[in-house]
Amino acid sequence: MAEELSFQSDGSNRLPPQNIEAEEAILGGILLDPEAIGRVSDRLVPEAFYISDHKIIYKAALRLHTQQKPTDLLSITSWLTDNDLLTRIGGRNKLATLVDRTVSAVNIDALAELVMEKYLRRQLIKAGNEIVHLGYETETELPIVLDNAEQKIFNVTQEKTQSGLIHIGDTLINTFQDIETRHQGIALPGIPCGFYDLDAMTTGFQRSDLIIVAARPSMGKTAFCLNLAHNIAAGYQLPVAVFSLEMSKEQLVQRLLASEAGIESSYLRSGRIAQNQWENLSRAIDKLSETPIFIDDTANITVTQIRSQARRLQAEQNKDLGLIIIDYLQLMEGAGDNRVQELSRITRSLKGLARELSVPIIALSQLSRGVEARTNKRPMLSDLRESGCLTGDSLVRLADTGLQVPIKDLVGKSGFAVWALNENTMKLEKAIVTNAFSTGIKPVFTLKTRLGRKISATANHQFLTINGWKRLDELSSKQYICLPRHLPIIGKQTMTYSEVALLGGCTLPSHAIKYTTREIDVPENVAFLAKELFSDAIVSRISPERRWYQVYLSAAQRLTHGIRNSIAKWVESLGVFALRSYEKCVPQDLFSRALRVANIVKSGELPAFANTDIYWDEIISIKLDGEEEVFDLTVPHLHNFVANNIIVHNSIEQDADIVMMLYRDEYYSPDTPDRGIAEVHLAKHRNGPTGTIKLLFDPQFTKFKNLARPNNW
């Protein structure tokens, strides 16, 4: 039976593209030749078969092949019988017919390509039909519709067969030439940026990398990235796309012209060009006009629009892009109301786009004003806007073990799981940490909540509020932040119900062990539990007070050196001796009240809050607490974690493969001996070393130049 399609290719009754004879010949060849399945398994997918019976038979052959079993007529018949599929495909007669109609499997490779071609044509028709339906979705914004339409076509173009195994001899010559050119300093594994020391450290920009270039204003971020764009586009004839959200395309072109012609930007802006400079300007225009640099100066551009433009440019140029530059990150338009969440989604989407198009993406970012308040104004990772750090004693609970570990003890480790909040479901989930690092010594503030939670963080660290993520310096007393209701415990129950019940009391150092209650029947239950658990070692005494009852749980023997009350020893062994009220867990039953209230008032929003893993605690104080070394974690996907039983965010660098920070000392100290020197701090490098390189900076032409000669790496 033919595969049922959910659409017609056009208004006629034409069948979708297919070649049933080729499908039968492929399956017959597999049944006849034990080696045939190995020749097509990596290039022919089951979905490529137009006849559903053929698809089932091919899947059976693939399953047997992966299990290193033969795919002859008997084996496939047996497998289909065992899985109740033999009757569905037409029985033994169907398989026998396939064998009878096939002479050999000699042409199976060509037949597989033919069947895949027909499949891709059907996929194209299907995508076209889906695009038609998208056009009628008037409730969806047009840019999203266009992006989805382009994505569907793009997905079809990516469904290509793999190249398969290639003999080593076919690649040895190219490999030797590649090694030779790298030895001579001519080629790198990635895309060279034209700055020798930076290329030596990064081995070129790797395709699919997201690179953050950050600095305070007037450090030369835009000029630096324009130099990168020019070096890659002019030096290697690779298309470069520049998305400028701050400067117009005319301003960017003037900068490129000034750099290329050696004429000050102010002269170009005013038109004061000397007679002997016109020739240089003309040559610069000729050279730049041949350089594949493309500029879009749309303000508030979205990732969706960038993706659409980049795909279109790649198709027009018929080659992979060399670089995408976005100037700058904080000006990009997001999809939500909260800026922190927007930036997290934007960086996540940019990383996905870099992988999708196999192109390095550079996103410029402003650093926070905290740099200006320090004596040493060289930037650090924690200076990235919308990011922050925690002090080293902040306890992070490991999801796999339940242990609470100071964040400073996690530095240099990765691959471990923590608890993080899924903001879509408001449930806690396990999340893998890919990086734990120190970000230097910073001023920190200590935040305390009504329930006694406490955490110390930098001013720009974010906490989740009812109105979304907010920096610590945007919070104040009487506001509420998000805490986990509970954290899942790893392991099995190790306490009896009697022990759990008895733990409800309060034990404090230098006090008698006692239980206080206003309920008349509770004291007898407490005395009974103490007797059940500790037998004759505890003597219970119930004492009525003014409006409550005290149950004194005294030791039967005299307490001396080395001899303690049995209950005190037991509670201390559990690690909960002398805990005050704010250090105890909030009973889960308490949270069921919110759901009952929601049902009574018929609220649409309250049930969502009532069924979450979080609750809201009031801030009672935020105080400056000196300077300390601070730390952060990188948690992909969810972008937050639980520390000190508070849900905290992590920084925007988490999605970046490389973070570079620019610094020019002469901006702050005009008399510095480093005038004309720019420092590029490689603060994060996911796949290589970090460090600092120096470049020459010519402010007249807003141009960065190599300070060192090229090396043989």
UniProtKB/TrEMBL annotation:
<dbReference type="InterPro" id="IPR027417">
    <property type="entry name" value="P-loop_NTPase"/>
</dbReference>
<dbReference type="GO" id="GO:0016539">
    <property type="term" value="P:intein-mediated protein splicing"/>
</dbReference>
<keyword id="KW-0238">DNA-binding</keyword>
<dbReference type="GO" id="GO:0043139">
    <property type="term" value="F:5'-3' DNA helicase activity"/>
</dbReference>
<dbReference type="InterPro" id="IPR007692">
    <property type="entry name" value="DNA_helicase_DnaB"/>
</dbReference>
<feature type="domain" description="SF4 helicase">
    <location>
        <begin position="651"/>
        <end position="711"/>
    </location>
</feature>
<keyword id="KW-0547">Nucleotide-binding</keyword>
<dbReference type="GO" id="GO:0005524">
    <property type="term" value="F:ATP binding"/>
</dbReference>
<keyword id="KW-0378">Hydrolase</keyword>
<dbReference type="InterPro" id="IPR007694">
    <property type="entry name" value="DNA_helicase_DnaB-like_C"/>
</dbReference>
<feature type="domain" description="SF4 helicase">
    <location>
        <begin position="184"/>
        <end position="388"/>
    </location>
</feature>
<dbReference type="GO" id="GO:0016887">
    <property type="term" value="F:ATP hydrolysis activity"/>
</dbReference>
<comment type="function">
    <text>The main replicative DNA helicase, it participates in initiation and elongation during chromosome replication. Travels ahead of the DNA replisome, separating dsDNA into templates for DNA synthesis. A processive ATP-dependent 5'-3' DNA helicase it has DNA-dependent ATPase activity.</text>
</comment>
<dbReference type="InterPro" id="IPR036185">
    <property type="entry name" value="DNA_heli_DnaB-like_N_sf"/>
</dbReference>
<dbReference type="InterPro" id="IPR006141">
    <property type="entry name" value="Intein_N"/>
</dbReference>
<dbReference type="GO" id="GO:0003677">
    <property type="term" value="F:DNA binding"/>
</dbReference>
<dbReference type="InterPro" id="IPR003586">
    <property type="entry name" value="Hint_dom_C"/>
</dbReference>
<protein>
    <recommendedName>
        <fullName>Replicative DNA helicase</fullName>
        <ecNumber>5.6.2.3</ecNumber>
    </recommendedName>
</protein>
<dbReference type="Pfam" id="PF00772">
    <property type="entry name" value="DnaB"/>
</dbReference>
<keyword id="KW-0347">Helicase</keyword>
<dbReference type="InterPro" id="IPR030934">
    <property type="entry name" value="Intein_C"/>
</dbReference>
<keyword id="KW-0067">ATP-binding</keyword>
<dbReference type="Pfam" id="PF03796">
    <property type="entry name" value="DnaB_C"/>
</dbReference>
<dbReference type="InterPro" id="IPR006142">
    <property type="entry name" value="INTEIN"/>
</dbReference>
<dbReference type="GO" id="GO:0006269">
    <property type="term" value="P:DNA replication, synthesis of primer"/>
</dbReference>
<keyword id="KW-0677">Repeat</keyword>
<dbReference type="InterPro" id="IPR003587">
    <property type="entry name" value="Hint_dom_N"/>
</dbReference>
<dbReference type="Pfam" id="PF14890">
    <property type="entry name" value="Intein_splicing"/>
</dbReference>
<comment type="similarity">
    <text>Belongs to the helicase family. DnaB subfamily.</text>
</comment>
<dbReference type="GO" id="GO:1990077">
    <property type="term" value="C:primosome complex"/>
</dbReference>
<comment type="function">
    <text>The intein is an endonuclease.</text>
</comment>
<comment type="subunit">
    <text>Homohexamer.</text>
</comment>
<dbReference type="InterPro" id="IPR036844">
    <property type="entry name" value="Hint_dom_sf"/>
</dbReference>
<dbReference type="InterPro" id="IPR007693">
    <property type="entry name" value="DNA_helicase_DnaB-like_N"/>
</dbReference>
<keyword id="KW-0235">DNA replication</keyword>
<dbReference type="GO" id="GO:0005829">
    <property type="term" value="C:cytosol"/>
</dbReference>
<keyword id="KW-0413">Isomerase</keyword>
<dbReference type="InterPro" id="IPR016136">
    <property type="entry name" value="DNA_helicase_N/primase_C"/>
</dbReference>
<keyword id="KW-0651">Protein splicing</keyword>
<keyword id="KW-0068">Autocatalytic cleavage</keyword>
<keyword id="KW-0639">Primosome</keyword>
